[in-house]
Amino acid sequence: MAEAVYGYIGNSTALLADAGHNLSDVLGLVVAWGASIAARRAPSGRFTYGLRASTILAALANAVFLLVATGAIGWEAILRLQQPEPVAGVTVMVVAGIGILVNGFTAMLFASGRKDDINIEGAYLHMAADAAVSLGVVVSAALIIWTGWLWLDPITSLVICATILWSTTSLLRGSIDMSMAAAPKGTDLAAIRAFLLARPGVSAIHDLHVWPISTTETALTCHLVMPTGTDDAFLMQTAQLLKTSFRIGHTTLQVETHPDNGCALAPDDVV
User: Fold this and answer.
1) How far apart are CA 130 and CA 25, in angstroms?
2) Element (H or E) spanning 198, and its range?
3) Cα-flanking dihedrals φ and ψ of residue 68, to 5°?
């Protein structure tokens, strides 16, 4: 809000662009926070996995927020580029400088957990991009004071838009993949298949599926063909090994004792 007010007073689209970016980040963080609370709810009724998938929807909403903000910022910058106007350079530099400190510190808070959760990764990327954007605003304001080139302000806004789009690409792609129940990034399906085939007594497997329950939890289902059968100890051990080796926390295995039982889900192309 402070950036938006001073951006308006200082007649700077670059500062308004930075304010819009920060607003979209705040909204994204609020959505992610709400989703993390909802994800703790126990399964009930039709929601047999609880509301864990809300964290995936939050990541997707976060990316959409950024894209909408980018469109609005870019449009305003193009209009301003056609008719450049004077900018209060010192005011812009001071406010954007404060933005560097705030966003840089916030990014550090998310740095350690960003590899384990796409929502945390999204927050980190947004805050880091905000700090970089604020730095760009400071530099452009300084150049405007030095050179008098008013077109630098809208050009900086367009650079900010490009930065936002670049930082949002991986988040958008990852959240869409999760929404489509794709195997989480970094999951080695070939290694999982080889591991299950190498388990004692397993002669074949089929109907292998791996998908995200939330941004931090992964589920697996598979049919194991075991002519000699098995016991609960084998199933528990296999589930534990899948958790420690592949970070799969929700495993469901179906054992079939006859290789020619005619399971309808046997072909790999059947879902």
Assistant:
1) 9
2) none
3) -65, -45
8 A C-beta contact, residue 188 and residue 86: no
Q: What is the DSSP letter of 222?
A: E
Q: Dig out the tokens for 131 from the structure.
A: 């700090």
Estimate to the nearest angstrom the gap between the alpha carbon of 204 and the chain centroid.
Answer: 36
Distance CA 113, CA 261 (A): 46
**Mean pLDDT by 10-residue block, N- to C-terminus, for the chain (271 residues)?**
78 73 75 81 83 84 79 78 74 82 84 72 75 79 82 79 78 86 89 95 93 89 92 94 93 88 76 68
Ranges of H-type helices in the chain: 2-9, 13-38, 54-82, 89-111, 118-147, 152-179, 189-197, 232-246
Question: How confident is the model at residue 114, as a pLDDT?
Answer: 67
95 within 8 A of 6, measured Cβ to Cβ: yes
CA distances to 26, 77, 144, 160, 167 from 71, rounded to whole Å, are: 17, 10, 25, 11, 15
CB-CB contact of 263 with 223 (8 Å): yes
For the whole model, what pTM was predicted?
0.71
Compute the distance between CA of residue 198 and CA of residue 189 in angstroms, rounded to an integer: 14
Count the Cβ atoms, other than its own, within 10 Å of residue 104. Answer: 16
How far apart, in whole angstroms, are the C-alpha atoms of residue 19 and residue 92?
12
Beta bridge partners of 194: none
For residue 206 the two structure tokens come to: 């089929």
Token pair for 178: 């999760």
Cα separation, 13 vs 39, whole angstroms: 38
Residue 266 is classified by DSSP as: -
| Cα dihedral across residues 235, 237, 238, 244: positive or negative | positive
